[in-house]
Amino acid sequence: MTRAFFLMVEGSQIDWGGHAQNIEYVVTEMMDLDNAIGVAANFASGNKNTLIVVTADHETGGIALTGGSMTDHKVEVKFTDGDHTAVMVPIFSFGPGAEKFSGIHDNTFFYEEFLNLMKIQLSQPVK
Predict the structure, then answer these.
(1) Whole-angstrom distance, CA of residue 49 vs CA of residue 44
(2) Residues 81-100 pLDDT 10s
(3) DSSP 3-state assignment of 126?
(4) What pTM, to 2 d.p., does this model score?
């Protein structure tokens, strides 16, 4: 019998880097998150019952691209804020049920969708 499971991995220090307005911190943490997603994608490519959803609960720092050079492979950035912003965050998904996880949603949307995908019915709804 195959058992369903749910694993949530948070790149929380990306948020810390945004609050600190420290681009090196943000980039390093984004690279770590990318590596973690790569491990999950490798697993999912061999297990056709695995759904990967990548998103965030908010954006922090308001990173703006202010310049750079394609030739030198450099980007110039500026933080527009040191707090959470109103910028929408993307949703990326791969695997069975991925079509449900795209577009624009409130972050509370995910809870019921994950329960539905895993065919879990609660005796009492959570409020």
Answers:
(1) 7
(2) 999 999 888 899 998 889 98
(3) coil
(4) 0.81
Burial class of residue 97 in the structure, from the number of CB atoms within 10 Å of its CB (0-12 exposed, 13-18 middle, 19+ buried): middle
Query: Within a 10 A sphere around the Cβ of 122, how many other Cβ atoms?
Result: 8
What local confidence, expressed as pLDDT, does residue 73 receive? 94
Which residues lie below 8 Å from residue 56, measured CB to CB, with a gap of 6+?
14, 89
* Distance of alpha carbon 33 from alpha carbon 20, whole angstroms: 18
Q: How far apart are CA 72 and CA 49, in angstroms?
A: 42
Which tokens belong to 18?
């945004």
Domain boundaries, the chain: 12-58+90-117
pLDDT tens digits for range 13-58:
999 999 999 999 999 999 999 999 999 999 999 988 889 999 988 9
